[in-house]
Amino acid sequence: MLKLTYFIPVALVAAVTISSCYKDQEKEQTAPTEKKAINLTKVTTYTTVMEPVTQSIRLNGQIEYNPNQVVRYASLVNGLITKTNFSLGDKVSKGQVLAEIRSSELTELTSQKRTLESRLTVAKRTQALAESMFKDRIGSEKELIEAQSEVDVIGAEIDKIQENLMLYNASSEKGVFQIKAPVSGYVVESNISTGTQISGSDSDLFTISDLSDVWITTNVYAVDLPFVKKGMKAVIKSKAYPDETFEGVISEISQVFDPQERVLKARIRMPNKDLKLKPGLAIEAVVRKDASGEAVGVPVKALIFYNNENYLLIQKPDLSLEPRKVIIHVKDNDRVFFKEGIVAGEKVVTDNQLLLFSEVIESGK
């Protein structure tokens, strides 16, 4: 019996000790992890102000050449392109030789000129003889006038051929016509290459445009017609340059609807200093119409949509954050306006507001 009474307390102590250790271990495993505190002094905010209410209208369109700065070159002669000195997109200078044409017309003109020059030599000798005979009263005045007339006629024909040769930029040394750039600019279209057979009836051989100034043609739908006006500023956006915008002004609005697209065409004339605005590139032009009155304006990115309602996260003077339900007055492209629910001078969180909003909501439950 003595052995039995001694063994039971020892077993109980061991059991209590094991149970205590297990409970301590369980507490350690179930203990909540401490959340990292948010540094509210580094929250990005926007201080609201009263401003004119605006609303954006988006106009789709594309970039086009300024037709006043486009030259299309068509050949005046028939022949074979023997050499080209340019590629599509090259910048060329006025007078630069772009191509050479070998043509039978050059041979014909050169032959005619030589024949006429020979005839002119003979006519001048006849004229000199007629003048001498007239002075000696051997020849008549009529013969003198006829000799002078022959010289003048032949000389005029030679001048005409010479003008044609200059017009066609004939090179007597190479025996070819040279095609020279009529203006400075960029070759934006080309229909020729070495070996191309051309004729005077062909369409344009190439097109040169000065891209320093382009036109943007946009579509104005009937619903937007009352708001789009000549002289309005427009912000041009393109998927080709997602991080850039270009500013222009509506210079003209057509007075006739396009019969196929059922839209009016608005033209925006744009400087193209860096040549980023490529003709044919699709764009979006954003114009802003002024609505009535003023309201508190906030960047649209600050808006939080939660449980089918709109919220703003307001930072109070003590740096605490307040989720506030608001009703939108007007929503613009990048601005949202409120007539009530928020006053000028309050600070609205504009960065990481969704994460902060969720933390504030969770902490308030």
UniProtKB/TrEMBL annotation:
**Pfam families noted in UniProt:** Beta-barrel_RND_2, BSH_CzcB
In this protein, which residues make up the domain named CusB-like beta-barrel?
Answer: 214-287
Q: Which residues form the CzcB-like barrel-sandwich hybrid domain?
A: 75-210
Does Transport show up as a keyword for this record?
A: yes
Q: Which UniProt keywords apply?
A: Coiled coil, Transport
Name the family the entry cites: Belongs to the membrane fusion protein (MFP) (TC 8.A.1) family.
What name does the UniProt record give this protein?
Efflux RND transporter periplasmic adaptor subunit
Q: Which organism is it from?
A: Dyadobacter luteus
